[in-house]
């Protein structure tokens, strides 16, 4: 498992917010990844290979309850036999200082290609998941997670 | 299954009955003569099952005024669809006569003169009378009573008793099941304590322990009524941990959990349920979307967004019920079951006109009992109002203007922020403002009114974030509530723009100057979701301001310019 690290915690970043009553999205002055950064990461791994849709079930909340620990569950449809299995799954975030969240390697002995973890999200952004199949095919799924200041509920 | 004509049947019957009534100042007596308990109760029964739904009572034990919104905009696919219509458009859609009792109960224009005609609505003893009468008519074994949540919060008595007053009242009412949202702001321990002892079920399929993902509450319960098995699935507000202080229930995780919901429906069917009901606190637009994605729900009893609609809304094979708030309505659904399936549904939104309904004496006594320890406080006069004081509206309400004015004056700040809560009673011009009225609009467990500095950029960011919470085109990304209310600052908003670019032209009202992104402003606000917020409770701030003024007059608020509707 490969974890990225973020020096400034969101909690610190939100500093003033905690006094304000409307928490806050005050991003620290650091550079963030974007769609291109994530595309570049994927290219580093797999070159210009075509990314197909389908097969991946990417389960993330629409709105994060706590930006520090946002649950992410990934499941890739596959028989997981020696002839046909999922080799790897990579999760990226396009609005964090570093785009890489986690990479999983699978073998047919895993039985199914599913994994869960929690990730820290600095702001509202897309979570991008790429699955590499044993025949070399690539699949991709994307979901938006909103990181909000909250409060003011009816 | 059910035609639109049938949906509106109950409505048109009710409107026909009241056509021509209530126009002009007829006086209370005339209104009362026209409208009787029998009119409110009139219903052509169907099948063997009756479901009664109340929701978002917000701890209102006594009859009150509650003005529905004049501005209730829908975003994305919900734009222009009910409940996102108001006043003339609403009356046209639901075939309600102008000036009628239904018009008074469901729309906002001409509120003051109609309030004089029709009097207050709600009151737990009136609700109890209607429920008792339906049980007597149908037989107790045929009636299921469900509460959609936001029942335990919203009054001084509920705050002081940590919801015990409402728990006692709802127990006496023999409610069968409820769900939660504001309930959770009493803290996880208090909620657990009540739920463990309560004679009613507290259901939530979408709350999990955040360590092991174990369910915190029972997800659903099956009831047998009129020979049919009815599965009730509970859904708490999915955004509770975002909308309210998460530190009050730090081990709970919420969310919509659509797939788990589908599993609940499938399990309920497998166990032989003929009727599957979602007792929901999702909010109407979320439920409308959910109904199109989760298969096999017969009825969704909606809540949270406080919409009241005198007709059912149908999505596929699911019907959605919107029963309003503050005890103004009791929804009745009669359901006919054939071959273990729903064969027909008949609906009526029963308006709880306090002057037309003979109160249930036992409930009157219980309400008096739970209020007695606080009676002197509640009745204390703080001032009076010359203006209509209401809360509902997407961008502002006059009661919120009063709260903002109080913060500006009492906390000596340039800008005041007040949350877009949808609860709190309405006062008409000439009304005395009592401690009860002040606290009906402010009673929460995190009331501290902070005073701080914020830059213009931060203010803009806050407005953008909250705007997205209301106007995100996908309801699953919304959080409910209305726009934060602002004193001392104006702005323009284009609700159709994407997140982060809706709000512009922030203006410091006193100087007429644009708000500068890098400049710091003094700001007061309340209902902070952060622990250890410092400052006096907001009710003291409001009461101090009102008692200094003596009588309140709110000038028309034109500080928010709205486009993109």
Provide a compact summary of the structure.
Chain A has 154 residues and is an alpha+beta fold.
Secondary structure layout plus pairing:
The complex is a heterodimer of chains A (154) and B (565).
Chain A: H1 10-13, H2 15-20, H3 35-46, E1 51-52, E2 56-59, E3 70-76, E4 86-93, E5 100-105, E6 113-119, E7 125-133, E8 138-145
Parallel strand pairs in A: 1-8
Antiparallel strand pairs in A: 2-3, 3-6, 4-5, 4-7, 7-8
Chain B: H1 4-18, H2 28-34, H3 37-41, E1 49-54, H4 87-93, H5 101-106, H6 111-118, H7 124-138, E2 143-147, H8 156-160, H9 164-172, E3 177-178, H10 188-197, E4 201-202, E5 208-209, E6 220-225, E7 228-235, H11 240-243, E8 252-253, H12 258-270, E9 275-280, H13 284-293, E10 299-302, E11 313-315, E12 318-322, E13 329-338, E14 341-351, H14 361-371, H15 375-379, E15 381-385, H16 398-410, E16 415-420, E17 432-434, H17 435-440, E18 450-455, H18 456-471, E19 482-487, E20 489-494, E21 503-508, E22 513-514, E23 520-525, H19 538-549, E24 551-552, E25 560-563
Parallel strand pairs in B: 1-2, 2-3, 3-4, 7-9, 9-10, 10-12, 15-24, 16-23, 20-25
Antiparallel strand pairs in B: 1-13, 5-8, 6-7, 11-12, 13-14, 15-17, 16-19, 18-23, 20-21, 21-22
Low-confidence runs of chain A (pLDDT<50, min 5 residues)?
1-28
**CATH architecture verdict of the largest domain in chain B:** 4-Layer Sandwich
Strand order of the largest sheet of chain B: 4-3-2-1-13-14
CATH class of the largest domain in chain B: Alpha Beta
Instruction: Note the gap between the termini of chain B.
Output: 34 Å
Instruction: Figure out the total of helices of chain B.
Output: 19
Gap between N and C termini of chain A: 40 Å
The largest β sheet of chain B comes out as:
6 strands, mixed
- Helix count from the secondary structure assignment of chain A: 3
Rg of chain A, Cα atoms, Å: 17 Å
Number of strands of chain A: 8
The fold-level CATH name of chain A is: Immunoglobulin-like
How much helix, percentage-wise, in residues of chain B? 25-40%
By secondary-structure content and strand pairing, the structural class of chain B works out as: alpha/beta
Strand % of chain A is 25-35%
Inertia-based shape of chain B: globular
């Amino acid at each position: 498992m490969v974890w990225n690290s973020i020096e400034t915690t969101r909690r610190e970043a939100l500093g003033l917010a905690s006094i304000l009553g409307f928490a806050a999205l005050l991003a620290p002055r650091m550079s963030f990844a974007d769609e291109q950064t994530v595309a570049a990461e994927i290219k580093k791994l797999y070159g210009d290979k075509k990314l197909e849709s389908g097969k991946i079930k990417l389960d993330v909340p629409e709105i994060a309850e706590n930006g520090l620990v946002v649950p992410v569950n990934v499941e890739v449809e596959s028989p997981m036999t020696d002839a046909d299995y999922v080799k790897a799954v990579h999760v990226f975030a396009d609005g964090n200082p570093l785009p890489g969240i986690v990479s999983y390697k699978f073998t047919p002995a895993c039985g199914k290609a599913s994994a869960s973890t929690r990730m820290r999200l600095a702001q509202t952004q897309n979570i991008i998941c790429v699955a590499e199949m044993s025949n070399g095919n690539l699949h991709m799924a994307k979901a938006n997670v909103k990181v909000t200041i909250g409060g003011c509920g009816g | 299954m059910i035609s639109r004509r049938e949906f509106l049947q109950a409505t048109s019957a009710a409107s026909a009955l009241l056509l021509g009534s209530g126009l002009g100042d007829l006086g209370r007596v005339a209104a009362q003569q026209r409208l009787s308990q029998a009119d409110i109760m009139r219903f052509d029964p169907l099948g063997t099952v009756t479901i009664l739904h109340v929701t978002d009572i917000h701890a209102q034990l006594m009859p009150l005024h509650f003005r529905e919104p004049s501005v209730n905009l829908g975003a994305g696919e919900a734009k222009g669809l009910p409940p996102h219509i108001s006043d003339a458009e609403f009356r046209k859609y639901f075939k309600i006569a102008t000036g009628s009792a239904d018009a008074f109960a469901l729309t906002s224009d001409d509120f003051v003169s109609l309030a004089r005609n029709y009097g207050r609505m709600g009151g737990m003893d009136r609700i109890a009378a209607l429920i008792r009468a339906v049980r007597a008519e149908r037989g107790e074994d045929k009636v299921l009573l469900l509460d959609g949540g936001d029942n335990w919060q919203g009054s001084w008595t509920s705050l002081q008793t940590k919801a015990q007053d409402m728990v006692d009242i709802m127990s006496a009412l023999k409610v069968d099941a409820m769900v939660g949202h504001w309930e959770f702001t009493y803290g996880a321990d208090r909620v657990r304590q009540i739920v463990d002892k309560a004679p009613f079920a507290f259901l939530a399929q979408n709350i999990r322990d955040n360590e092991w993902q174990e369910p915190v509450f029972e997800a659903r319960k099956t009831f047998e009524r009129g020979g049919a098995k009815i599965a009730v699935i509970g859904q708490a507000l999915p955004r509770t941990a975002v909308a309210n202080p998460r530190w009050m229930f730090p081990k709970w995780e919420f969310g919509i959990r659509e797939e788990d919901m589908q599993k609940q429906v499938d399990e309920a069917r497998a166990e032989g349920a003929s009727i599957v009901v979602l007792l929901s606190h999702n909010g109407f637009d979320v439920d409308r979307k959910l109904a199109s994605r989760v298969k096999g729900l017969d009825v969704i009893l909606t809540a949270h967004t406080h919409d009241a609609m005198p007709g059912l809304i149908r999505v596929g094979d699911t019907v959605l019920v919107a029963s309003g708030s503050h005890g103004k309505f009791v929804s009745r659904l009669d359901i006919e079951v054939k071959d273990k399936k729903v064969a027909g549904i008949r609906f009526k939104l029963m308006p709880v006109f306090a002057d037309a309904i003979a109160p249930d004496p036992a409930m009157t006594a219980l309400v008096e009992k739970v209020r007695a320890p606080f009676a002197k406080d509640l009745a204390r006069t703080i001032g009076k109002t010359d203006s209509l004081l209401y809360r509902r509206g997407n961008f502002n309400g006059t009661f919120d203007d009063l709260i903002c004015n109080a913060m500006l004056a009492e906390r000596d700040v340039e800008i005041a922020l007040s949350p877009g809560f949808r609860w709190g009673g309405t006062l008409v011009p000439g009304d005395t403002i009592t401690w009860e009225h002040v606290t009906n609009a402010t009673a929460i467990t995190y009331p501290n009114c902070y005073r701080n500095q914020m830059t213009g950029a931060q203010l803009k960011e806050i407005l953008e974030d909250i705007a997205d919470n209301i106007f995100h085109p996908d309801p699953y990304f919304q959080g409910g509530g209305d726009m934060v209310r602002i004193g001392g600052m104006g702005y323009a908003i284009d609700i159709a723009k994407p997140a982060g670019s809706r709000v512009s032209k922030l203006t410091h009202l006193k100087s007429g100057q644009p708000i500068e992104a890098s400049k710091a402003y003094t700001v007061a606000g309340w209902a902070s979701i952060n622990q250890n917020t410092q400052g006096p409770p907001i009710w003291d701030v409001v009461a101090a301001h009102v008692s200094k003024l003596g009588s309140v007059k709110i000038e028309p608020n034109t500080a928010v310019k709205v486009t993109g509707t």
